[in-house]
Specification:
The chain folds into 2 domains: about 55 residues, no CATH class; about 55 residues. About 75% of the residues lie in helices and about 0% in strands. The protein has 5 helices and no strands.
């Protein structure tokens, strides 16, 4: 049960994989590699060592993917900040227009 939960599965889900009822998904492969240092190449083809050495826990492809995600997060944060600033400007303009409209209404009612 503990092993199954370490890779996000129930005991029944893990048993289904063991019995061949379900395949190992990409997500499970990533978790097996990250949590238990399982060599995905070995898992898929039987070639190589079953476990990765401790220092090869993340390959360069994963590191590149993580770096790209971090860059995308930074880009999106900048875009959010820009949109928030633009939103504030629009609100200020709308408030200013509403004040002008109210003043015009008041002036018209005086006549």
């Amino acid at each position: 049960m503990e092993f199954a939960s370490s890779i996000g599965l129930t005991q029944a889900g893990y048993s289904d994989i063991e019995r061949g009822k379900n395949n190992v998904s990409g997500k499970i492969k990533i978790l097996l590699k990250r949590e238990h240092r399982v060599n995905v190449v070995w898992l898929e083809s039987g070639e190589g060592e079953m476990f990765l050495p401790a220092d090869e826990n993340q390959n360069s492809e994963e590191q590149t993917l993580i770096a790209n995600f971090q860059l995308e997060i930074q880009r999106l944060q900048k875009e959010i900040n820009q949109l928030a600033a633009e939103n504030n400007q629009f609100r200020e303009q709308a408030d200013s227009m509403n004040q002008i409209i109210e003043k015009l209404k008041t002036d018209l009612n005086k006549k």
